Amino acid sequence: MNTIDVVVVGGGVIGLSIARTLSVFGHETIIVDGEPLHGTWTSSRNSEVIHAGIYYPQGSLKAALCTRGRALLYRYCADNGVPYARTGKIIFAADAAQSAQLDAIQAAADGAGVDDLRRLSARDAAALEPELACHEALLSPSTGIIDSHAYMNALLGEAEAHGAVFAGQSKVTRLSRRPDGWGVHVNGEREPAVAARMVVNAGGLAAHEVARVTDDLADDDIPDVRYARGVYFTYAGKVPFRHLVYPVPVPGGLGTHLTLDMGGMARFGPDVEWIDAIDYSVDPARGEQFLAAARLIWPGIDPEKLQPGYAGIRPKIGGPDAPVADFRIDGPERHGLPGLVNLFGIESPGLTASLAIAELVAARLDIGT
Fold it and tell me: Domain count of the chain?
């Protein structure tokens, strides 16, 4: 069996960005995914926001990779015709009691290297968004939106132009050790479908499952992963907003916020619900909860136009009572297995950070780019 350079497990935005980076620099790459098409899980079920990097702790991978990734992503979109817009984001305090949270957000952003936030009075905020009633706010001008599907198509197209291959309907069921790297077994087959010198486990919601079927990987190197479902309700009509609008964060998430797609249509969400298995269902009965949250942003919303949208699932490291975890990008320096990188807990801001994550994976594999 011939041995190729790299197999990337997972055809979401992270796997595609890694495959694109490695193939552009001359490495023979195969992307394997259990679904027939790329990007059908978390990568196509999110807010499509390009994050500024405001909320992430100083010194964390999330902070560093979001800031670096944002710059790379805006440049990539401009160079490759991927639809995007620098809409800006308003984070608002509904009353004076929440102003201290804006102070904390400002301080955290400064620590993370985000230096363009601007404090807004109620009058300033109303000048930008007349329908938003708030005590005061922060404006993040470097926040934006992206057509995530077009972005993934561009990444895959560029990877394929440099020789990469996407292999769908190929669920990885074992990674076996070989003298020259790794055997990649799919769909329960006893013999490997392909051998690779290097494997990148970018399986997203299934990354911990791929890790469990990896030869010689210690249990201590496989974190507990929990699923946090986020539901969105969409608005069937135009909205009087030009910016993304976020409340101050709530425990467990950023709160139900208003985001826009490239067509100017709005969605409200996501909320946070801990679940035991992958389930994308949306309960229409939750409409009252979403309506109440939406009215905090837009008191004049038409309730008849708020409707169930879709759900996404975050692969969280740890449960609801655990501190918010950083990204895990584990190379041989952590687990001791040559030619293997595991990515765990790649939730938001994974889309924004995707190209920077690809750079770091290449470094973990000691691949010069």
Answer: 2
Interval 174-194 mean pLDDT: 97
With contact defined as beta carbons under 8 Å apart, do 69 and 356 qualify?
yes
Q: Identity (one letter) of the amino acid at 326?
A: D
CATH number at residue 137: 3.30.9.10
pLDDT recorded at residue 322? 86
Per DSSP, the residues of 28-52 read -EEEE-SSSSSS-SGGGSS--EE--
Alpha helices in the chain, H assignment, sequence order: 13-24, 61-80, 99-111, 122-128, 148-161, 207-212, 287-297, 332-335, 350-364
Q: Do residues 230 and 299 both lie within one domain? A: yes
Distance between CA atoms of 208 and 279, rounded to whole angstroms? 17
Residue 45: its pLDDT value, please? 96
Between helices 13-24 and 148-161, what is the axis angle to 10°?
30
pLDDT in tens, 326-353: 999 999 999 999 999 999 999 999 999 9
Average pLDDT for 136-162: 98
Closest CA to 98 of 136, 128, 129, 139: 136
Under a CB-based contact definition with an 8 Å cutoff, are residues 193 and 33 in contact? no
User: What pLDDT, in 10s, does the model give residues 150-164?
Assistant: 999 999 999 999 999
Q: Do 296 and 236 lie in a common domain?
A: yes
